[in-house]
Description:
- By secondary structure, the chain is an alpha/beta fold.
- The protein has one domain (3-197): Dihydrofolate Reductase, subunit A.
- Helices cover 24% and strands 23% of the residues.
- It has helices spanning 36-39, 42-51, 62-72, 78-85, 111-119, 132-138; strands at residues 3-10, 57-61, 88-91, 104-107, 126-128, 146-152, 172-179, 185-191.
- Strands 4-3-2-5-1-6-8-7 form an eight-stranded mixed β-sheet, with helices on both faces.
- It is globular.
- The two termini are 26 Å apart.
- Residues 194-201 have low confidence and may be disordered.
- This is Dihydrofolate reductase family protein.
- Residues 7-184 form the Bacterial bifunctional deaminase-reductase C-terminal domain.
Amino acid sequence: xxxxxxxxxxxxxxxxxxxxxxxxxxxxxxxxxxxxxxxxxxxxxxxxxxxxxxxxxxxxxxxxxxxxxxxxxxxxxxxxxxxxxxxxxxxxxxxxxxxxxxxxxxxxxxxxxxxxxxxxxxxxxxxxxxxxxxxxxxxxxxxxxxxxxxxxxxxxxxxxxxxxxxxxxxxxxxxxxxxxxxxxxxxxxxxxxxxxxxxxx
Length: 201
């Protein structure tokens, strides 16, 4: 399996709380919902739809898993059944089985090691949404194959960043980039193979 990060980010790299005001208020964050105005762009919807097609699954951190479960399973939305039926792997050393969301498997202990074993299983892509802590724990081991980022034309100046201080040094090549009418750039980045060594090319 390939591991693909799919996230909204601002020009200053903020990934916190893109969808709604109460999504993630940690550290007093007050800008929640910053991607909502442009997130319904037809080009973005199509790009995400292609990636999240039937058969793909999810790899999520504990907080994102709990938030998505709490939000989408209370919504009358066409996404609810699709999310419930998709395979979900949850990286957590605080949750315990059985997990509440259908088709969910707990990954615990050494998370990078567990994901290394998971990647050996043939299958469709697993997508990481949100889950900044999980992303930062996997990146130094070269376990993330691609970052599909919707880069929004705004700067927030505060919040949790995707590539925060201490992120492992990495170089990427751009596999694809598409501008949208709302000013968002949808870009697919793939880390060079030397990522796991922490080297900069």
